[in-house]
Fold these 2 entries.
Entry 1:
Amino acid sequence: MRVAFLGLGAMGRPMAANLARHHETWVYNRTAAVARAHAAAHGTSVAADLAEVALCGPQVVATCLPTTVEVAAVAEQLLDSLRPGTVWLDHTSGDPQATRELADRCAARDVALLDAPVSGGTDGAAAGTLTVMVGGDGAALGRVSAVLDAVAGRVVHVGPSGAGMAVKAVNNALLATSLRAAAEGLVALRASGVATSTALEVINASSGRSFATERLLPERVVPRTFPRTFSLGLLAKDVGLAAGVVRTAGLQAPVLDLVDELTRAAADSRGGAVDHTELVRMVEDAAGLELGGDEERT
Ligand code: NDP
């Protein structure tokens, strides 16, 4: 299939590289040098602007942009020039309601917009093993299964338009909750004289374990590396979207509201560009001690 992939960020670059192994892949990026470097490294073709994206006549458009605001801005320029029958896979972790509205505008042009946010991080993107949670028309999803197979280890059709975005938002709210809560507990254990690696060894063989305790804390926090793969600003955006899902459902979620507030405060204080695991540093700073680092060597 001919695919146009828009947004070569931390996730988009490896996703488009995997697509290019199986499909004719055109790439567009706001900063054009990134697209040119991608073409040189992975054999993709460059669309210099959105007019060229339309001209290459893609059967599938894929976007992986920070928020639905940027996706809607791209649609504003691109939608009228897409061929009827095009399927648009939006891999952005986006806003469910705004995505539904955009899907309606696309449907009026006979373009099927599927929300298809992903989970698995930059490692999963590089390995082509992402989990994709899809919202929207099942028949359109069937037409692009070969495209999703190039980037995904698991594809789940979770419901109508917007449902994929809602599931992704709640997933990431749970990530923020477990990361923050694990940091609070481990800092308390450290203050009580238990080394972080020792505590993690126990927790990861027990019922309190999570992705935060099994992967993020041992791999990024204990060695004090905090590599930038998923920004704290994007995580704060996702937790805010989850709070919106709760409000739309007419429910209350005091824990998620608090995590929303704490994650936004962390992004404001440390800057949105740092890795999301810097959430832990907020907890460390308040306690006046660090997890891992020298304590592991003494
Ligand atoms: P990055 O910040 O690394 O990349 C963002 C991309 O969007 C870049 O290509 C950037 O272009 C482009 N962009 C930004 N603003 C605009 C704009 N106004 N118009 C056009 N293009 C724009 O983000 P990620 O790749 O990390 O994340 C992308 C999406 O995937 C987000 O919704 C995120 O929440 C989600 N996600 C991220 C994961 C991760 O581990 N990083 C994991 C799962 C989901 P330019 O090069 O010009 O800046």
Note: The chain has 15 helices and nine strands.
Entry 2:
Amino acid sequence: MELFEIIGKTKLNGEVYINGAKNAAVAIIPAAIATGGICKIENVPDIEDVENLKTAITKLGAVCERPDPHTLIIDSSKISSHIVDYNSVKKIRASYYMLGALLTRYKKAEVPLPGGCNFGERPIDQHIKGFEALGATVKIEHGMVKAYADNLRGASIYLDKVSVGSTINIMLAAVCAKGVTTIENAAKEPHIVDTANFLNMMGANIKGAGTEIIKILGVEKLHGCEYTIIPDQIEAGTYMIAAAVAGGDVTVQNIIPKHMDTLSIKLREMGGIVEEGDDFLRVISDGNLKNVEVKTMSYPGFPTDLQPQMTALMAASSGMGNITETVWENRFQYVTELKRLGCKITVDGRVARIEGGAKLTGAEVHATDLRAGASLIIAALACEGKTTIGNVRYINRGYEAIEEKLGALGADIKRVFIDDSDERYSEEMN
Ligand code: UD1
């Protein structure tokens, strides 16, 4: 079992290099099996979600090579099954993208209901609505989503919810459907644009990704390609917030600054300095910012995946502030753990009221999901003394070498391996 041990109150200084986007990689890897060709994907983050997806497509018959940790070559020509194994995808939410990809490839797909981070109800009705509009029959049986189609044909689909997953999944299923598919009220996140760009490199004809209306003209077939994944908006934001909470001068390198606009604006409002370059942002902070109002929204709004990290920053800042979560119905479970560090936060439905200025002190805490884990790291940086974070496996899902990157900036953080039988750190808490 792994833990992080962090001794807070050190300033952060220097440069940190951001890896490829997790949420793009977990869509692009399944997208690669929509063709029988070979795809060479670069800037793939070296994280557990990627490893799990690689295992899942290998079990289907794909041959994956990783000539270096950030390059993945997928040869899907020998895929022989349309049924995805439960064990390899139970921890990944994005396994549902295999539905769209296998529908395009084989007109049939059987994929376990998604796992991944648990922050409330995570329905997939909009994915199913999209597949059915394209002509598929979908049923859920024995924990599996089963989709079959004789023929896929283009359709007009209006999403009742702005949903990243269903926007991407419908694109995946529609690329070779006969005629034109229109997705209205589509989500606009950067990884949607990245997945559309990847599919277009494979021969698809997708226009409008990044806007509310996406048009897909079905093509005969897809082919292999070479593609480089965009930088991770959420990893970048996590390091920007780490710099803001700890104080110091940190340059976050290899990013698309535009993707960070809402966070940069909030950090400036709080009194931090954010300077922008072509592919970097420099965050300068005295470690004592003042609180603001934050509301999560789909892109280009403030990302829900930075909400837990922002809550930790605000708990360590001065004054009163509120964070309103509008995307997920139940994304404040981690607050109980932040309170163990001394954070003063009251949750009322979808709003967290944060009273800054509290004295934060290190304690034993447990990550309840991926970004909750990042939030505990942020808070620990502001604590007096040592914080021990359990359930590091959640953090491993989405952050590459986080202790090395923070350590290089000056944080006192180490990954500790302990005996699984050590009851003090039982992972049954979740
Ligand atoms: C993706 C991200 C996740 C992020 C979320 C919102 C990946 C792998 N994960 O998750 O980190 O927090 O976007 O930015 O990219 N909904 C429905 N019906 C559906 C689908 C979604 O009601 O069929 C609702 C959800 O309950 C939620 C909202 O729509 O309230 C947004 O969900 P969605 O954008 O689909 O999230 P994911 O794609 O699962």
Note: Residues 23, 26, 93-94, 121-127, 161, 163-166, 187, 304-305, 327-328 surround uridine-diphosphate-N-acetylglucosamine (CB under 6 Å).
